[in-house]
Amino acid sequence: MKGQDRSTESAQSPPPSEMAESLLEKLFAKSRQECPEPRKAAVQGHIPTWFQGTLLRNGPGRHAVGDTSYNHWFDGLALLHSFTIKNGEVFYRSKFLRSDTYNSNIEANRIVVSEFGTMAYPDPCKNIFAKAISYLSNIIPEFTDNCLINIMKCGEDYYATTEINFIRKIDPLTLDTLEKVDYTKYVAVNIATSHPHYDKEGNVFNVGTSIADKGKTKYIIFKIPTSQLEKDKTNSCLKRIEVVCTIPSHSRINPSYYHSFGVSENYIIFIEQPFKLDILKMATAYFRGANWGSCLGFHKDEKTWIHVVDKRTKKPVLSKFYTNALVVFHHVNAYEEDGHLIVDVIAYKDSSLYDMFYLANLKKDFDASSNFASTPICQRFVIPLQHDKNAEVGVNLVRLPLVTAKAVKEKEGVVYCIPEVLCEGIELPRINYDYNGKKYSYIYAAGVQWRPVPTEIVKFNIHTGEKLRWTEEHCWPAEPFFVPSPNATEEDEGLVLSTVVTSDPTKAPFLLMLDGKTFTEVARASVEADMHLDLHGIFIPEKVASTANT
Ligand SMILES: CC1=C(/C=C/C(C)=C/C=C/C(C)=C/C=O)C(C)(C)CCC1
Ligand SMILES: [Fe+2]
């Protein structure tokens, strides 16, 4: 049954009968087969002629090697997949990222490289003592290059990314794996997000953490300039990384963990939340047989600092802004309005989301009543950038009409922010990226009624609170991606894409194309392939992507 629902609040239909143990295991833990040659999809509906290019996505696709298995969904070996759309036809392909991690595991026929939730030990044939000694001599161990989270565009180059210092260049058309790049060669970060931002010239901005470097732990906001002279075209953009600003960590051995950050036209927003890495635990993890995930801890009684960096001065603004302890994975958008900075995020009251994705938890009985993690809440913070310096302590400094978020002056230079709730139950938010950093109206996201599995995709109108939904039986949609139509004059003029896996063996997975305005189905391209649940990705319009697939 196809379906689309215009109700304004989360009408919770009963869980599908298949929400049983085996289903979640099958959806998350099943090892997938790659489909390296382009495979033509069966198109239903009519794909608009302007819509040409390649949707490129990344996510974990294999959780077992030989007799060994990973413990966590985020550990799986990166499987890249793409849909190339040309003249109304769609071609699919997928390839495992041939990372060093992938190759070592396959060669040893077991998992030999540690991931987020799995600590692994090298092949006993190799010199384990050499590994242990090299480990001991570094506070920060050598991390995996299994870049499974997202795709980053740097000028003409594309990289598969994860959250640590390695990124892997890929060929966006063949999905072949190219060089391994180590951020630390260009900027001193041991960790960097897989959610960079881009300005209108295509320059990349990202945030990373430099751990215990010369005794200091700090967050580094950096820019990868991508516009290059013709003669420089063969050089990697990464060689020209510039540090925009550094922010000292509140704690040297407990830097914050973060998954994304926000940008408005003039500011960069970095949330230093009390979900933190414990560096001492990380340094001893290998010998304790503990995984990286166990080195993360949520400190519920600590503050969450909202750092605001002015892009023009490359300095943090003078006031300090904070809120209560929370956990944010995804920023939605940020923009400036009448001397205030609006910051929209998906926040949780704790870090239970990461525990939920241990595959052992996904095997448990699961239904609507047994949500394993706290609810994702779309929250809006309003930061008063230009407030009356003479305001009295205890005064709400927010001066915008129709806003319930507060920012209370606590003392000189310190402001306590209380967010307003925009809506609940959405994750993996995307927007029309042309509106990134600007006032906007729509959020496209996965609707998560039973955490963790998205059962629907949603278009949320921030101003009216209206939610449009797409959902279909036995279908598990991924993060939606908005592609604006050429010369669009309205924010929601375009297509919303989602890769959908199915749990009905008679129904092939498909690329779903919805009309951005009405959220009705425009077309779907079903493909007989072993598609996986993916995480994030990008769309490369035809002017960039060549026609190699066809
Ligand atoms: C390996 C490794 C890490 C990996 C984290 C990963 C892989 C996180 C994935 C998060 C996702 C997919 C979130 C989605 O919302 C850390 C903890 C950064 C640091 C230690 C080493
Ligand atoms: Fe993410």
Automatic annotation (TrEMBL):
Coiled coil segments of this chain:
none
Spans annotated as Disordered: 1-21
Q: What would you give as a GO molecular function for this chain, any one? A: carotenoid dioxygenase activity
Binding-site residues, Fe cation: 195, 259, 330, 536
**Cofactors per UniProt?**
Fe(2+)
Q: Which domain of life is it from?
A: Eukaryota
A Pfam family found in this protein is RPE65
One GO BP = carotene catabolic process
Give the keywords, sorted. Iron, Metal-binding
According to the record, cofactor stoichiometry and binding are noted as: Binds 1 Fe(2+) ion per subunit.
Under PANTHER family, the record lists: BETA,BETA-CAROTENE 15,15'-DIOXYGENASE, BETA-CAROTENE DIOXYGENASE
Family affiliation: Belongs to the carotenoid oxygenase family.
* Identification of the protein by name: Beta,beta-carotene 15,15'-dioxygenase
Q: Which species does the entry assign this protein to?
A: Microcaecilia unicolor
Coding gene?
A: BCO1
